[in-house]
Specification:
This protein has 430 residues and is mainly α. It contains 17 helices and no strands. The chain has a single domain, classed as MFS general substrate transporter like domains (Growth Hormone, Chain: A).
């Protein structure tokens, strides 16, 4: 019996079913990027309407990130037991309903509650789509396809930024949550009818009717059908946290968690506070929103290029270079404050931090076996979200203290350097 699913079909080409899976995962990550960033784009208007301080907004940002950690650590691992597709469907419902419901928020507490719920869906979605993409991508180009799928996140952020810049000044901040919520709920039928379950999950976890479901997928891929399921591993620890620390994975897991924690701290300081920082510098609201959009446009280019470069020069080396580039750019930010070059710098920082950060998803997908892959990716993202909580909270305090933009960016360059070093120390067996 075959050792892995890659031997079941021609690894030299990618089938229409694989392309459809990648595109749907890309779409769901676009929605993730949109649903995460709407609060950032709406923040200046919310702060003005409700007279909310930077520190208070930092709490609302961080509550959403707590939800993402919960979703990544406790909802995403369910993909190792009930399937990747089922978790993606659940997350779609949670995200769409809670984002839309945000239009009814009248207080900070209500806003924080809806951000918590949407965060749970977003956290589960990111880990599940990364896992599914890793299991359908051809081995030779796996790093590229994972990066491509995760590049949907900044694309969604860019599109939502462009829309927000047009509608928020005219119609208020609630309209962008209405648009984002409806857009997310609209995708549910497409995911239900067209997204395939992971072939690796079906063959190794053996859910009900696994053989028939696997053969339907193989038939669509024009591959040889199976007569019986492969022999299962003895006592597979599906969704078990302990699996992440067995078979010499303990040290790489700690380094991965360290790298992703530090990367998250820097990334979410930048993504959630750039519009507010630029607004504080005296730019009009629509330009403040465009600053975040430029950041995410640079991120898209960085992510896709990272996937290509990683397949040629090595995943860890490219991530290391990306993080160091980000730290260098953040350190010299003060030299460009107040000039038109600031938007270019934001784009380059998005290129570096997002490109390197998304590479860590590919690292996590490589590090863990199928039966614990969603758990491994989910817990890496979830523990990293602790850094994402710390980043905006600390950013809110520093901004409230009146520290200059240059000092803020220099402080958050430090975790980018730590992430670079930790990445190099992760030992990948494949």
């Amino acid at each position: 019996m075959q050792k892995n699913t890659q031997s079941l079909f021609d690894p030299s080409r990618i089938t229409p079913l694989q392309r459809a899976t990648m595109l749907l995962c890309f779409l769901m990550n676009m929605l993730d990027g949109m649903d995460v960033m709407v609060i950032s784009f709406a923040a200046p208007s919310i702060a003005k309407e409700w007279a909310v301080s930077p520190e208070a907004l930092g709490v609302v940002f961080s509550i959403g990130l707590v939800g993402m950690a919960i979703g990544a650590m406790f909802l995403a691992p369910k993909a190792d037991t009930i399937g990747r597709r089922n978790v993606i469907l659940i997350c779609t419902c949670i995200m769409g309903a809670s984002i839309y419901a945000t239009i009814f928020a009248q207080t900070r507490e209500q806003l924080a509650f809806f951000r918590l719920l949407s965060g749970v869906g977003i956290g589960g979605m990111l880990a599940s789509t990364a896992t599914l993409a890793a299991e359908y991508a051809p081995v030779r180009t796996k790093d590229f396809w994972i990066s491509f799928v995760m590049a949907g996140y900044p694309v969604g952020a860019v599109l939502s930024g462009l829309v927000a810049a047009q509608v928020i000044p005219e119609q208020g901040w609630r309209i962008i949550f209405q648009i984002a919520g409806l857009a997310t709920l609209t995708t549910f039928p497409f995911v239900y009818w067209f997204l395939a379950e992971s072939l690796e999950f079906l063959l190794k976890s053996k859910p009900k009717n696994a053989l028939q479901r696997a053969n339907r997928i193989l038939e669509k891929m024009h591959a040889q059908l199976l007569v019986e399921l492969p022999l299962a591993n003895e006592n597979p620890a599906k969704g078990s946290l302990a699996t992440l620390f067995t078979d010499q994975r303990a040290r790489p897991t700690v380094y991965l968690w360290t790298a992703i924690f530090m990367a998250f701290a820097t990334l979410y300081f930048l993504t959630l506070w750039i519009p507010k920082l630029v607004s504080n510098a005296g730019l009009p609201l629509h330009l403040a929103i465009y600053a975040g959009t430029v950041f995410n446009l640079g991120a898209f280019v960085g992510i896709v290029l990272q996937g290509y470069l990683s397949s040629r020069f090595g995943l860890k080396r490219i991530i290391f270079a990306y993080f160091l580039l980000t730290a260098a750019l953040m350190s010299v930010f003060g030299l460009f404050a107040g000039s038109a070059m600031i938007l270019v710098l934001f784009g380059l920082m998005g290129f570096g931090i997002q490109g390197g950060f998304i590479g860590l998803y590919a690292v996590a997908a490589r590090l863990y076996p199928t039966e614990a892959r969603a758990t491994g990716v989910g817990w890496a993202i979830g523990l990293g979200r602790v850094g994402a909580v710390v980043g905006p909270l600390l950013g809110g305090v520093l901004i409230g203290m009146g520290l200059s933009l240059a000092v803020n960016f220099m402080i958050f360059a430090v975790p980018a350097v730590v992430a670079a070093v930790a990445t190099l120390k992760i030992d990948l067996k494949n």
